[in-house]
Amino acid sequence: HSHEESILECLYSQNYNTTISQVTFTPTNSSYDSILQFSIKNSRFNTSASPKPVLIITPDSIPQIQTTIICSKKQKFQIRIRSGGHDYEGLSYTSPDQNSSFLILDLIRFRNISIDLAQQTAWIQPAVTTGELYYRIAEKSSTLAFPSGICPTVGLGGQISGGGWGTLLRKYGLAADNVLDTRVIDAEGRILDRASMGEDLFWAIRGGGGNTFGIVIAWKIKLVPVPASVTACTVTRTLEQNATEIVHRWQYVVDKLSNDVFFMVVLNRVVNPIQANATTIQASFNSLYLGSIEGLIPMMEAKFPDLGLRRENCVEMSWAKSILYFAGFPLNSPLESLLDRTISATGSAKFKGKSDYVKEPIPISGLEGIWEKLKEVGVQTGGLILASYGGKMSEIAESSIPFPHRAGNIYQVEEVAFWVEDGVEAADGYLNWLRGLYEYMTPYVSKNPREAYANYRDLDFGRNGDGGGGGGGKGDYRRARSWGSRYYKNNFDRLVRVKTAVDPANFFRNEQSIPPLSSWR
Ligand code: FDA
User: Fold this and answer.
1) Does the interface predicted TM-score (ipTM) exceed 0.90?
2) Distance 154 CA to ligand 1 centre (A)
3) Dist CA 388 CA 411 (whole Å)
4) Ligand 1 and 90: CB distance under 6 A
5) 165, 173 in Cβ contact below 8 A?
6) Mutate which of 455, 464, 507, 511 for ligand 1 pocket (most atoms within 8 A of beta carbon)
7) Along the chain (521 residues), what's the average pLDDT of each consecutive run of 10 residues?
8) Is 175 helix (H, G, I), strand (E, B) or coil?
9) Of 93, 456, 487, 488, which residue is the catalytic one?
10) What is the pTM of this model?
């Protein structure tokens, strides 16, 4: 018996569940490749060299998930849980450790949304995307929303497991801050809800990382009020149009504005609009205001006159439409675009992202150094995305949920590189550039620890051994601290305690999951 045959035998022999064979795919199955690739959202891990799962299971019932857990444990398979497939390092569908046999538990069929308008809550299954959720809320109410991410194809299974920030974060915090209840299947195959799992586990799963504490099969979320019409604006400025001074000034106002204003600034290299053969650096200021153009313009004239915001930079629209606006869709795109899981901000590109938190404004000279870095890469192949903090984010305690990046942050930074070229050499070029930019940012961002966003997973911080490690030893704990303290700060130890209590054998694991610590048992 091969390892693969043994697990198939186990899966198919569970006679209370006769249908699992219909949702199990091995590499010899003609649908295997298309199912594997459908939710790969980073082409960097979609090459012939990328380690592939021995099996993909796409369960459509809870007993099939429980069977998968039981048989994977028995046959010592790692499972990779996949909802939307946007993991930055591809850990929901590949394992950089070539030696481990893993299977994908792809939750793509768990996509129900049930909205309770009277209570202003919803139950959602994990493979629901943010776009699908926003669309279904908008169908029922023009004045309700949910404070999750901007890119409409991201799965809520993974996103809420790491936090989930979007244009409503200054008003309502993160997606994970707005979870009321959940259904999780633990390593023993038990179905738990908030009452039966207890507050420690309920705390941990709201941001402590996916594929670690159990399989989330549903979230109960709190919907939040928004005006029927909101205002979205874009102002672009190049270096020749004073971008440096305006970005510099932006840092002094953005976290102190009314909670109804959110700002995102995208910095990258573009073709110079006034000199066709040359390039320049552009800052694109995208803002969302939970109110009318009339309300916004005088506020910006008073608080941030340097931006020079004018009516013609702004459009009023529904909140759901503003997601398409922020995600870069053309203005006349139908709202149904939110339902399309196949389009993606990343297209067929390969990418890597890194993240930072800024607590003191970066001086002009520091910004000028960033421009120099951006000039080292091609037009729109690398950039920084700044997202304003403050407001509600500063009111929530660092220990409220595992996500700790709260008061004291002016904005969050994502440094990112995109490329389409194949091959290791091209990849190394972009990765080295990105690491150089990150190195350059060191004096200007958070220190001790240098904080990072768990949902922008970055294996440069280190990884568990053996595709997940975790014999429960001190070495595993110490190694995991190197990324755990960045993602979770002082919440890391509590996450280890919860992990030790609920999954001491470390069944749910990946290269950056929280390990158990046997001496804490
Ligand atoms: P995926 O299925 O890859 O899961 C991610 C991780 O969670 C994996 O470790 C996986 O095993 C685990 N997991 C998935 N489902 C689980 C479940 N049901 N139970 C337990 N564990 C589970 N973030 C943000 O906050 N705001 C934003 O605007 C964006 N925008 C954005 C755009 C693009 C193009 C990308 C690629 C990513 C983002 N993100 C983001 C980051 C995103 O929130 C992060 O990658 C999420 O983990 C992705 O969740 P998925 O379910 O899509 O991924």
Assistant:
1) yes
2) 6
3) 4
4) no
5) no
6) 455
7) 88 76 95 96 92 96 95 94 97 85 96 98 98 98 98 97 98 98 98 98 98 98 98 98 98 98 97 91 98 98 98 98 96 96 77 98 98 94 97 98 98 97 94 98 98 98 75 87 97 98 96 91 68
8) coil
9) 456
10) 0.97
